[in-house]
Write a structure and sequence with these properties.
Blueprint lengths: L9 E4 L7 H8 L3 E6 L3 H4 L2 H11 L3 E5 L8 H14 L3 E6 L1 H15 L6 H4 L10 E5 L11 E6 L5 E6 L7 E4 L9 H19 L7 H23 L4 H14 L15 H13 L3 H16 L4 H12 L5 H18 L15 H11 L15 H11 L1
Parallel strand pairs: 1-8, 2-3, 2-4, 4-5, 5-8
Antiparallel strand pairs: 6-7
Helix pairs in contact: 4-5, 7-8, 7-9, 7-11, 8-9, 8-12, 10-11, 10-14, 11-13, 11-15, 12-13, 14-15
The chain binds 5,6-dihydroxy-NADP and zinc ion.
Length: 391
């Protein structure tokens, strides 16, 4: 059994990191950049103007495309590809959170590989490369700033949300200034914190060999993220809390937390969640808080001691076996509650009808073509039981 750790992203961390954008672009040798961003937040904070000035002062030409929505849509990425082709763009600079970065990654794929970009998300084709993507991160959550993943939603296919994973989309550079996250609203801080925790929790649940060092590193990340999340809620401009969350966001999803583990982790919660946020447009972290307790309740008997180990290292739970597992699940529910998360679809305002449940299951199983999970393999009936527990 081998596992791989590959992180080509050059990280520049700390106050003022965004001022290194031009240096990084020159290092790569790009001639024209697309500045890609979301709604109003980066304009309002003055960050976009800083970026524009930084590029202008260094003689770097750029085009711009804003308007990325949370749960980014493939349609805007297509618009970005057309614009970049017209403008001769050879690097995409994402200024924002996970949605902006993922949209930038889709543009990077579409520019490098001709043809319909959704093919890479629907699984029809595999990308053979990408135009480089650089990141100025404004929200600690998804880890997309170092990850091999990009998740897009296709509205014309009924809100089908699909990920494309390949090392080609790992950003060339990530500029991480924790101060840029001081303005992140309370709710986004909460869902972001849950997402960071979940990227490591999902990696913790494999069914084969693992190494204790990785388990301990993982649990430190989960515990610290939980604690720093609470501090950031009380004191949004606490540098250490925001900085810890930012670095944890990157390390939680760049592969480090699965090194030595038999598989890349379980990922059923993420996959079940993507169908939920694709169909109902809820925040990804909120969807995870709904799915994880239901999944854990359903699968914990597979290996209760694995849950107990997580509970012991994160919450100091002493009990082993079934009792330890149940206490661990309760402790996570309690934690998500404190982060003001919904713990059921109903609490998130989703009144799931039976026909919608079947639609979720069609999508989650890739229309009957896949099972989910590694800690416990889930068939359609298992997924149904989990969605029902989460309803
Ligand atoms: O659009 P603007 O105005 O910028 O506002 C955004 C947006 O409304 C706001 N925001 C971002 N930075 C801010 C800020 N507001 C104030 N101050 C700042 N500094 O936050 C809102 C949410 O942004 P978004 O990018 O959607 O959030 P997040 O980073 O949580 O990204 C979520 C998306 O990433 C996907 C999710 O499924 C979801 O689509 N994921 C991507 C992954 C990956 N590529 O590796 C892994 C994850 O598991 C996840 O699936
Ligand atoms: Zn996630």
């Amino acid at each position: 059994m081998t596992s791989m750790y590959y992180t080509p992203t050059r990280v520049i961390f700390g106050k003022g990191a965004e001022e290194k954008a031009a240096d990084e672009i020159k290092r790569i040798g790009a001639k024209k950049v697309l500045i890609h961003f979301g709604g109003k937040s980066a304009e309002k904070s003055g960050l976009l103007n800083k970026v524009r000035s930084n590029l202008k002062e260094n003689g770097i030409e750029y085009a711009e495309l804003g308007g990325v929505k949370p749960n980014p849509r493939i349609e805007l990425a297509r618009e970005g590809i057309r614009l970049c082709e017209k403008e001769g763009v050879d690097l995409i600079l994402a200024v924002g959170g996970g949605s902006v970065i993922d949209s930038a990654k889709a543009i990077g794929y579409g520019l490098y590989n001709k043809g319909e970009v959704w093919d890479f998300y629907s699984g029809k084709r595999t990308p053979q490369g990408s135009v480089p993507v650089g990141v100025i991160l404004t929200l600690s959550a998804t880890g997309s700033e170092m990850s091999d993943s990009s998740v897009l939603t296709n509205e014309t296919e009924g809100g089908l949300k699909r990920g494309c994973n390949s090392d080609y989309c790992r950003p060339s550079f990530a500029l991480l200034n924790p101060e840029l996250t001081y303005t992140v609203p309370r709710y986004q801080t909460e869902v972001g914190t849950v997402d960071i925790m979940m990227h490591t929790i999902e990696r913790f649940f494999h069914s084969g060999e693992g190494i204790d060092f990785t388990d301990r590193m993982a649990c430190t990340l989960i515990k610290d993220t939980m604690e720093k999340g609470f501090i950031a809620l009380d004191d949004p401009e606490n540098y250490d809390a925001r900085a810890s969350l930012m670095w944890a966001s990157s390390l939680s999803h760049n592969g480090l937390m699965a090194l030595g583990n038999d598989q890349r982790g379980d990922w059923a919660c993420h996959q079940l969640e993507h169908e939920l946020s694709g169909m109902f447009d809820i925040a990804h972290g909120a969807g995870l808080a709904i799915i994880f307790p239901a999944w854990a309740t359903y699968v914990h008997k597979e290996n209760p001691d694995r849950f107990a180990k997580l509970g012991s290292l994160v919450f100091g739970i002493k009990e082993k076996g079934e009792e330890g597992a149940l206490k661990t699940i309760e402790a996570f529910k309690e934690c998500f509650r404190k982060f003001e998360m919904p713990l059921s679809m109903k609490e998130a305002g989703i009144d799931l009808k039976d026909s919608e449940l079947e639609e979720l299951l069609d999508k989650a199983t890739f229309f009957g073509k896949r099972t989910l999970g590694a800690f416990r393999k889930l068939e359609r009936e298992d997924m149904k039981a989990i969605y029902l527990l989460a309803r």
